[in-house]
Write a structure and sequence with these properties.
Elements lengths: L5 H20 L4 H18 L4 H13 L2 H10 L4 H4 L17
Helix pairs in contact: 1-2, 1-3, 2-3
Length: about 100
């Protein structure tokens, strides 16, 4: 797993927190909300997480510990069923098309 530079993670986390404060101060401002969501998405990509809250937690943890310890911690986490499950619809729901029938 490739890890981002700590300086970049710190910069994006600061950006996220600043836009979070702005969004909380003006929740009806669509531009502020969109920018806040964009910064959350950027953290998700940087940290390899599916939601902004998980990405923020992972970024804070990543900045507190060494990269090697962070990788060990990520490897030790239990995998959820959705991550290890195979892709696609369940086999029982697949339609079978028979040629000529």
């Amino acid at each position: 797993m490739l890890l981002p530079a700590k300086a970049e993670v710190a910069r994006q986390l600061r950006r996220y927190r600043a836009w979070e404060r702005a969004m909380l101060a003006a929740p009806a401002d669509l531009t502020v909300r969109a920018t806040f969501e964009d910064t959350g998405y950027t953290l998700c990509v940087l940290m390899g997480k599916r939601c902004a809250r998980e990405a923020v937690d992972a970024a804070e943890r990543f900045l507190r510990i060494t990269p090697a310890a962070y990788l060990r911690e990520q490897d030790e986490r239990p995998r959820t069923a959705s991550v290890s499950a195979r892709r696609g619809p369940p086999r029982s729901r697949r339609r079978r098309f028979h040629a000529g029938r």
